[in-house]
Amino acid sequence: MIQSVPILMYHAVADAPSAATRRLSVTPKSLIEQIAFLADSGYTGMTFSDLASAFEEGAALPERPVVVTFDDGYADFAETAWPILERRGFPATVFVTSGWVADAGSHAAGKPLDRMLTRAQIRGLAAAGVEIGAHSHSHPQLDQLDDATLCEEIRFGRALLEESIGRPVRSIAYPFGYSSPRVRLAARAAGYRCAASVRNLRATPSDNVFMLPRLTIRRSTDEDAFAAIVTGAHGPVLRQERVLTAGWASVRRSRRAAKWVLGHA
User: Fold this and answer.
1) % of the chain surpassing 70 pLDDT
2) Most buried residue, 16, 21, 73, 197, by CB count within 10 Å?
3) 180 lies in which domain range?
């Protein structure tokens, strides 16, 4: 029997998040309860890259593996989320948008949605065992970019993070969860070993390691919904999310095709 693994996707963790991050945020109380559920239910945490490597190598997994990821790189990860995870012995992967880092200086790019991690915090988290992954440089829709801009977004973001933490960055999460065969090939060519999408499905060894699916945890995810998502009984809970994701994929392909036609007219 193929073992499927829940890869959870979080964003901000705050009682009073910014308006822009509220829908995809959770409260500290909710995170405490959710991590307690995982611990009490016998789940073993893995980093995103370690799971991808195990899938590729056919390595044995823990009886109940789970991966906890956070997107964007909000300051509240270091201040609130990591202490909650660390107390329970759960690792985490944080996908950092390099141009949003609080002290990015001349490399600042895009529009941060809330308070962001500093370079010192990112270094400290990496030293504590948190996996630092990339989330592009300015958080664009990668599948809508031309080839040169796409390659620079994923190459430069990785380079800045590696400079900060002093070790290779092996994973990337596509902003908004959007990718395409062209984006995935570019990520592989840039030196990444695996990548995270969304898709709201559990991950399996048969999945492409450059589009491993994650499960969205948001402010409206109550205790029952969280349990259903983690245990795989989430059909009705996430069915609408999957339909919307598929619909947007079709729209994005059409937009990209239209850009190509205009560019070659």
Assistant:
1) 87
2) 73
3) 7-263
